[in-house]
Design goal:
Pfam families: Alpha-amylase (PF00128). This is Glycoside hydrolase family 13 protein. The chain is an alpha/beta fold. It has 14 helices and 15 strands.
Amino acid sequence: MIYQVYVRSFLDSTGDGIGDLAGVRAGLPYLKKLGVDGIWLSPFYPSPQHDHGYDVADYCDVDPVFGDLEEFDRLVAAAHRLGIKVLLDIVPNHCSSEHPWFREAVAAGPGSTARARFHFADGRGPDGSEPPNNWHAMFGGPAWTRITEPDGRPGQWYLHMFTPEQPDWNWRNPEISAEFDRILRFWLDRGVDGFRVDVAAGLYKHPELPDADDPEADARARDSVNPLAWNQPEVHDVWRHWRSVCEEYTARDGRERLLVGEVSVPSAREHAKYVRPDELHQAFFFDLLSAPWDADAFRKVISEAMKDIAGTGSTVTWVLNNHDQVRAVTRYGEPATEGSGLGAARARAAALLMLALPGAAYIYQGEELGLPEVVDLPDDVLTDPIFHRTGSRARIRDGCRVPLPWSGQASPFGFTTGEQSAKPWLPQPDYFAEYVTERALADTRSFWHLYRDGLQLRSSLPQLGEGTLRWLDTPPDVLAFARDDLVCAVNFGTAPTPAPVSGVPLLTSGPCPPGVLAGSTAAWWVVDETPEP
């Protein structure tokens, strides 16, 4: 169970309104009490912050807004004392336009070895004024930007699958692999336990960079859809090599190093290729996150993952929220006319379901508080490059990144402290007073206690982390499966279920009376014998 820390929104120790590494260190006892096994830190490297740190200018340092390397070392040491592992977010697909190598490439001119580290190409048309191909960027607009050459003339174009401030590395150049070897070892030598790999299906592009049949597919889906830019076969060689680097460190001290990939591919079968025994240890399976609130849809997604991913001997890595997606409470509550409490009930049920599934589970900060998406941020505070590149609020990500509420009745809700405290970098709504952590810890009916109790049960029933599941016969709109001596049942409908799950001899039923599972809720039952399929 890994907890995603979005550093700039977790806890601010300096009073500047931006979370930092010292704030994460101060929050470790809270995470230990919750029961997590590790934390994944969003990028904190030096960056101009055009995409909040995913535009990296220096992969081997800490941006002063978040602290310094000494503070990072203190954080790792404190986490390890508490038995909490530390994963870093590594960004190998692209860097910042302020990275020294990109600046060198712009200054070096066409045909230089410096430009060979990126995707520079001449434009089309008689004067080279058209992009080299028709690809569009994930965040909107063309995937190519033209530079001005050192002599002042309009020059070549460079590829960026996200924003112009994030040029893509050319992984066909062996210098890039060697550089990331150095980066990985720098952080592994400082004691990190592994890496979350950003855009893990990216890196390699089609060698000829041809036109796409559907050039706007990525921008339309805001996903890795263009088959010429993503999921190229050569990328698997990278993960085999990175796996060997991690295993080299594990062989030294017996401490496992983890690689978990952000993998967006067309099917569970393609996903399974990334978690073969010699590649990534884990890869986020986003299909559960994107599934509609429907028993049949959830069963289909889970079944495919168990067949295609777990069937290879790999671990399925489940996730319901992250820093790029609308929070589950809001997502499951749509349309809003169905009532504000419906999304919360469904999110609680989905959490119990996820924690009962075989495999790994990741949660995003605030998920354990039941935080909803902040949907009414004014335009003048929005920072997401998607908004600034498209002019549309559709699928923007600021609403799930609003700083956490810790205490009190008004903003900054304990997020930032000190006599000269600045306002949080994104404004917190007044209703966050209902979700502060001090209130959640005191209320045994809160989301926080649901997650804490679920994690404690996972620890006491270690078989939950591995193995298989068996589907059970259920009434309509109910999903139930058995894991050895535990049954998880979820009612996707809105009315009570009039009969118990077929074949389950109930020993305990928690808060639900035997035979009744209220609508949009879930429950775990311990059974006195393994039920027949």
